[in-house]
Design goal:
By secondary structure, this protein is mainly alpha-helical. The chain has a single domain, classed as Lysozyme (Orthogonal Bundle), CATH 1.10.530. The chain is about 55% helix and about 5% strand. The protein contains 8 helices and 2 strands, in the order H-H-E-E-H-H-H-H-H-H. The chain has a two-stranded antiparallel ribbon. A hairpin with a 4-residue loop joins strand 1 and strand 2. Helix 1 crosses helix 5 and helix 2 crosses helix 7. The longest helix has 19 residues. It is globular.
Length: about 150
């Protein structure tokens, strides 16, 4: 289990420092968490019709599990750092499964955040790659496509 520090401040904006801290606590890739944020594009305090909430669009199906880490429903929905931590925990759990697949490249593994179902995972993978292409040189993208990271 991950021992989370208390969430002291209420904030509506996800910062790089939040992503870095959450990634370090959950041992997930910072870049991966950042790309997920860019694909999800949610807003603090808002949930969509499919019950995805906050900047990382954390689905309500995860709330009961996240409570054992001290993340309440309110923190997940209404606090940028709470939502970031929730996403990082879910990301770690998904990577624990997908990380073992040797036929998955780095983007396949990241896309497990969204779904294990191949058709949904592959669609999400494409979105992640498009976001990465805006940030990274082609050589780096190709390295991530060639292997697990």
């Amino acid at each position: 289990m991950i021992d989370l520090p208390p969430i002291e401040t209420t904030t509506n904006v996800v910062t790089y420092e939040m992503i870095e801290r959450a990634a370090r606590l959950t041992e997930t890739p910072i870049l991966g968490l950042y790309l997920i944020l860019k694909v999800e594009g949610g807003t603090v305090g808002e949930c969509n019709a499919t019950n995805d909430c906050g900047p990382f669009q954390v689905n309500r199906q995860h709330y009961n599990d996240l409570e054992k880490y001290g993340l309440s429903r309110s923190l997940i929905i209404n606090n940028a750092y709470g939502n970031t931590l929730a996403a990082a925990i879910i990301f770690r759990q998904k990577l624990n499964v997908c990380g073992a697949y040797t036929n998955y490249d780095w983007f396949d593994k990241l896309a497990c955040y969204h779904s294990f179902t191949p058709k949904f995972r592959l669609k999400y993978r494409t979105k992640l790659i498009k976001k990465a292409e805006k940030l990274l040189p082609p050589k780096t993208i190709n390295r991530f496509l060639a292997n697990g990271g």
